[in-house]
Amino acid sequence: MRDVAVVGVGMTEFGELWSESLRTIWTKAATAALADAGLDSVDLITVGCMSPGLFVGQEHLASLLADELGMAGVAATRVESACASGGLAVRAGFAEIAAGLADTVLVTGVEKMTDVDGADATYALGSAADQEWEGFHGITFPGLYAMLARAHMARYGTTREQMAAVAVKNHANGLLNPHAQYHLKVTAKDVLESTLVADPLRLLDCSPVTDGAAAVVLTTVERARELAAGRPVVTITGSGLATDTITLANREELSELRAVRLAAERAYRMAGRRPEQLHVVEVHDCFTIAEIMATEAIGLFDPGFGGSAAADGLTALGGKIPVNTSGGLKSKGHPVGATGVAQVVELVNQLRGEAGQRQVEGAAIGLAQNMGGSGGSSVVHILEVVR
Ligand code: COA
């Protein structure tokens, strides 16, 4: 297997980008990443996108977008794993370079979610749940995560205040990220008194509906050294992918995200790393309870201690292990297909020492965890600065 490095990153602002189309935001992110890498051609393009058919009526994205970039003829493929589509696009690009099938890959993620109304967006997102056993009975994603929250609260005593602490932290981090959808300071009181969405989750426990695109350019470590021009070379040392039952009713345990644990174990094994060695982490906080459960599943905290860790400031900037320095899905926004790629953009910025006001001093090893649906799939990557 060849060693793989990230040589370029780019992303659009995340938010309600009503004057833009899916192809224009994608092209902005792609050209920014290529410019950052100093490349104008690649061997392969991967596109992570969950549901362009339902959100904008467009399928056949890989060819469409390659053409939009002026690269018709290049190999291109779209991958889908619901909200983990972006992470899966990273893994697909990683695998091609590691296997020697390609030398340079433009990995992209995109979703244009605000061209439909809220009900249609909820329907499109709901297609990631099991339609026969969940969707047709009326459950939505806030409802599914509310059930996970209730199970975690019942088993471990996790509190509403601990969940609110996640939102407060991530909105504070989002204030420092110019690409974030919300530049909004929120207090625990704001979260606890915000509109009830699906008991116990309130508006400020939820990630929003977002437009956005993100891109990274991958190549071999040898080529990355040539392109580095004095900047640190960031390599992907671990990649883990796992599934769980989509239907919550089929899970033996609802207070654990098993796919996340399995994907993380596989990534740690490949990288030869342990959770205690990480300096910065991006997790899939589509709801505040998801961040608490994800930090437990990737081994940062013992089961049941993710909530108190957030409330005690361990995951804040300057804390023991900063989580979601980008603002996370909660504040940065969650254009579902783009999220997994944007997490890697944040880690590369951190590991290069280019994260500005939200820089974690000395960050050299980071982990990104992306998740599909209510934990039916997960992708984990470990990134490190090459010394
Ligand atoms: N966090 C903070 N503010 C939010 C928000 C969020 N998640 N969602 C909406 N808002 C704000 C809007 O900016 C708007 O503010 P304004 O009145 O100052 O302009 C206000 O709340 C109302 O926005 P609106 O778009 O009408 O909200 P909504 O009620 O239609 O949608 C949710 C709110 C929570 C239902 C929606 O954001 C949602 O479905 N989130 C979950 C997305 C999801 O499931 N993703 C997949 C996860 S697996």
Describe this structure in words.
- With 387 residues, this protein is an alpha/beta fold.
- Helices cover 39% and strands 19% of the residues.
- It contains 14 helices and 11 strands.
- It has helices spanning 22-37, 52-56, 61-68, 85-99, 118-126, 141-156, 160-174, 188-193, 221-227, 258-271, 288-297, 306-311, 328-332, 336-352; strands spanning 4-11, 44-48, 75-79, 104-112, 196-198, 201-202, 211-220, 234-243, 280-282, 365-372, 377-385.
- Strands 3-2-4-7-1-8-11-10-9 form a 9-stranded mixed sheet, sandwiched between helices. A two-stranded antiparallel sheet has the order 5-6.
- 58% of the residues are buried.
- Coenzyme A binds at residues 83, 118, 122, 125, 141-142, 182, 197, 203-204, 206-209, 286, 334.
- Residues 83, 118, 122, 125, 141-142, 182, 197, 203-204, 206-209, 286, 334 line the site of coenzyme A (COA).
What order do the helices and strands come in, and which of them pair?
Elements: E1 4-11, H1 22-37, E2 44-48, H2 52-56, H3 61-68, E3 75-79, H4 85-99, E4 104-112, H5 118-126, H6 141-156, H7 160-174, H8 188-193, E5 196-198, E6 201-202, E7 211-220, H9 221-227, E8 234-243, H10 258-271, E9 280-282, H11 288-297, H12 306-311, H13 328-332, H14 336-352, E10 365-372, E11 377-385
The structure holds coenzyme A (COA).
* Arithmetic mean of pLDDT: 98
- CATH level 1 class label of the largest domain: Alpha Beta
Give a count of the beta strands, DSSP E runs of length 2 or more. Answer: 11
Give the name of the CATH architecture of the largest domain. Answer: 3-Layer(aba) Sandwich
Strand content: 15-25%
Oligomer: single chain
Indicate the radius of gyration in whole angstroms. 19 Å
Order of helices and strands: EHEHHEHEHHHHEEEHEHEHHHHEE
Distance between the termini: 20 Å
Bound ligands? coenzyme A
Number of DSSP helical runs = 14
What's the story with the biggest beta sheet?
9 strands, mixed
The H-level CATH homologous superfamily of the largest domain, spelled out, is Thiolase/Chalcone synthase
- Shape descriptor reads globular
CATH fold assignment of the largest domain = Peroxisomal Thiolase, Chain A, domain 1
Point out poorly predicted stretches: none
